[in-house]
Write a structure and sequence with these properties.
two-stranded antiparallel sheet; Rossmann fold; globular; 12 strands; single chain; alpha/beta; eight-stranded mixed beta sheet
Length: about 240
């Protein structure tokens, strides 16, 4: 396993884990997005657990500093925290969250750089908590061009509903996992994410588990199969 210089836009720092030579193209590309307040390299151990031959793992650090050296994709203050989607429609007074927009654009730029530099055969997003919300948001957008999205202990944001209603010609498959005893992001948020995706015709693997706000072994095992098994993205209706 080797580490390569990060392929990233200017505003993201990215750790790269790879079993491929720097000049090799193709293979699997997986972008792992951490949760709020976690260290920027928080998802590196998960990347190490999942990596296999012909794979590159990209682990970007959120652009915003938080207490204790952690990072974030957006703030959680009352004026900055994005609204969650509890049904198909955003509130009448909803306005796009600037920090969510900036985080989305940064990850889209990273994905474009990865595709341009490595031409991977498959591209996947994996996110935990706040990173899962961002994975939903980016993965639903046609320009992301991802094949698979794994959202672990997250919800769908109101900012993501426009993309949910306007899918591209190919839809990614989703793995939605959530702990029944999650005290940080309620279990009902994961259930609602699954329901929204189901209703809009996405291929969804739903994985509830007995546990809290974490990534247990059974989820890592499910991720391993989900990310690398052969499957065709669902076509648009």
């Amino acid at each position: 396993m080797s580490s390569q210089p990060p392929a990233a836009p200017d505003d993201l720092t990215v750790a790269v884990l790879s079993t491929m030579a720097p000049e090799e193209r193709g293979g699997h590309a997986v972008v792992l997005l951490h949760g709020w307040g976690a260290p920027g390299d928080d998802m590196v151990p998960l990347g190490r657990a999942l990596i296999r031959p012909g794979t590159r793992m990209f682990v970007p650090a959120g652009p915003l500093p938080e207490f204790g050296g952690g990072r974030a994709w957006w703030r959680l203050g009352p004026e900055e925290r994005p609204a969650w989607a509890w049904d198909d429609h955003a509130p009448a007074d909803h306005r796009p969250n600037d920090l969510v927009t900036a985080a989305r654009e940064a990850v889209l730029a990273l994905l474009a750089t990865v595709r341009d530099r490595y031409a991977p055969d498959t591209v996947a997003l994996v996110g935990f908590s706040q990173g899962a919300m961002l994975a939903h948001d980016v993965g639903l957008r046609a320009e992301a061009g991802v094949d698979r999205v794994a959202a672990l202990s997250g919800v769908v944001l109101a900012d993501s509903l426009a993309a949910l209603h306007s899918p591209g010609p190919r839809r990614p498959a989703f793995l939605v996992a959530h702990g029944r005893d999650d005290e940080q992001v309620p279990f009902v948020g994961g259930e609602q994410a699954r329901s929204l995706l189901d209703r809009h015709g996405y291929d969804v693997t739903w994985l509830p588990f007995d546990g809290g706000h974490d990534i247990p072994g059974e989820v890592i095992g499910a991720l391993d199969g989900f990310l690398f098994e052969e499957r065709e993205p669902a076509a648009r209706d």
